[in-house]
Amino acid sequence: MSGPPSTDPNVFRRLMGRWPTGVAIVTTRDGITDYGLTVNGLLSVSLHPPSLLVSLGDDADSSPAVAKSRIFVANFLSAQQRSTSERFALSLASEEKFRDLPLHRGVTGAAILDESLGALECRVLSEFQVSDHHLFVGEVVAQELGADAPPLVFHRSRYTQL
Ligand SMILES: Cc1cc2nc3c(=O)[nH]c(=O)nc-3n(C[C@H](O)[C@H](O)[C@H](O)COP(=O)(O)O)c2cc1C
What we know:
Layout: H1 9-17, E1 21-22, E2 24-30, E3 33-39, E4 42-47, E5 50-57, H2 62-69, E6 71-76, H3 82-88, H4 94-98, E7 103-105, E8 111-113, E9 118-130, E10 133-145, E11 152-155, E12 158-161
Antiparallel strand pairs: 1-11, 2-3, 2-6, 4-5, 5-10, 6-9, 7-8, 9-10, 11-12
The chain binds flavin mononucleotide.
């Protein structure tokens, strides 16, 4: 912990890798097209009203889709959903991502993944740009408790579980 102050992005990446997180798939729906991506940049913001923040990279196709639709769903993944997480972390066409995936729809119309731990449906309250990411704060308009199962965890750039 001595020496000159470091802002090296590689050190930052390694250090953030020591911070274990859950994994979610954020979905949205623009007209008739579903979008979704794997995220761990997610933060509970407030309880009254319930709100949360998601951070989407500018290169993610889902980011302009959320900006346009003004809604998103955060689906919290169980350890059983690792392959779904891997699929949604690839830059695939939307039909490929959602192919044969069991899902249903709530009040926002965006996809709620059937096998998740639960889902928070949100309406975008505010958004802002920070360097190459777009941050969306959503107010929860509906919530669903799903499977009471072990969560999928991401730590040191790898999937793991508790
Ligand atoms: C564990 C994990 C967490 C991720 N977290 C984020 C995140 O918080 N925000 C983000 O924009 N991308 C994140 N990604 C990368 C996206 O899932 C990936 O770029 C995806 O291809 C974007 O899909 P899209 O371009 O179809 O929207 C993460 C990937 C993994 C494997």
